[in-house]
Specification:
The chain has 313 residues and is mainly β. The chain contains 3 helices and 22 strands. The chain has a 6-stranded antiparallel β-sheet. The protein has a 4-stranded antiparallel β-sheet with strand order 4-16-9-13, with no helix packed on it. The protein is globular, with a radius of gyration of 24 Å.
Length: 313
């Protein structure tokens, strides 16, 4: 990665840990704040969704994700929930766990796509906040719409065991927002969610949002997938070399630089970083570069969390 030029550095923000950031250029039509915490925050959007079949949709798809859209006979649901699970909770189908009742439910309603729709409110949108939508599990394909914009279609969003992340800052607005997913059922040959072979197979083929959807708010710089790798001396259990890593992302449209800091009990380490616009890279603290990550506890036998409670060291 090339270092930013002196001209770039004049427009570069600096960060330290969970500190404060200097706001960047003001976006038209949004409030500007002098300082903003850059820690990450999850906005809960798991409750209060509506579910309905595409057969009941008389409008074009864009309108479904516009605030104020109304659909008759939509069913309330929270997520995660497959289509069939939501229908059972709303008593569209009853006693599905008795005998072979599940086998007698027609598959015809589930040969078409189904819609999940959610509205949520944001009190303020300012130019120091960045937003990402994360879908942790969709079965099997989906078109994703936000405030009238298709941010991804089924050519990209497919595969029930994949996770999808989208930058959505530019598509959000102060006040009411609307998110809509058109979910398609898996087809023969698709890798899908399985049941034990003696269970009746659900007529919807487990179609739907089967893992959480997250809306994350952060500053221009965010960290994710933090991990500590421990290279333990299994003979003595007294020394270990720790490698600490995370993915760091610059969500802004200009370069940023700063100081990343980690703390392990009384050990505090830091590392400078520079990121180009929209760049993501791995940030690593290696024990070869930081002597304090070589943990030595002679005579103590070390401190461990044994993942197998029946194991005796």
């Amino acid at each position: 990665m090339e270092n930013p030029s002196p001209e770039d550095m004049n427009n570069t923000r600096r960060y330290r840990g969970r500190g404060r950031q200097t706001p960047h250029g003001h976006r038209p039509g949004v409030a500007k704040r002098p300082e903003t915490d850059i820690s990450m925050h999850e906005i809960n959007i798991l409750k209060g969704w509506l579910l309905f079949s595409s057969r009941e949709l008389e409008s074009d798809k864009k309108r479904v994700s516009l605030p104020g859209f109304d659909v008759k006979d939509a069913l309330p649901t929270d997520i995660p929930s497959t289509v069939m699970a939501a229908l059972v909770r709303n008593k569209v189908y009853r006693n599905v766990y008795f005998s072979d009742n599940l086998d007698h439910i027609s598959v015809e309603p589930f040969k078409v796509s189904w819609w999940y729709r959610k509205t949520f409110f944001l009190d303020a949108i300012d130019d120091s906040h960045y937003y990402r939508l994360i879908f942790e599990g969709l079965n099997d394909k989906a078109n994703i719409w936000l405030n009238g914009v298709c941010i991804a279609d089924f050519n990209e969003v497919q595969g029930c065991f994949r996770m999808f992340e989208f930058e959505v800052t530019e598509h959000l607005q102060q006040g009411e927002n609307a998110l809509a997913l058109e979910v398609f059922p898996p087809q023969p040959g698709d890798l899908s969610i399985g049941f034990v072979d003696w269970n009746p197979w659900p007529p919807d083929q487990n179609m739907g949002i089967w893992r959480p959807v997250k809306l994350l708010q952060s500053g221009a710089v965010s960290l994710k997938n933090g991990f500590v790798k421990s290279d333990l001396d299994v003979e003595t259990l007294e020394t270990a070399a720790l490698t600490v890593s995370a993915e760091i992302t610059n969500h802004a449209q200009e370069p940023v630089s700063g100081l990343a800091e980690i703390k392990i009990e009384n050990i505090v380490l830091n590392q400078e970083f520079s990121l180009q616009p929209n760049e993501t890279r791995k940030l690593c603290f290696h024990p070869s570069d930081y002597a304090d990550l070589n943990i030595n506890t002679p005579g103590s036998g070390g401190r461990f969390i044994w993942v197998n409670p029946t194991f005796t060291p």
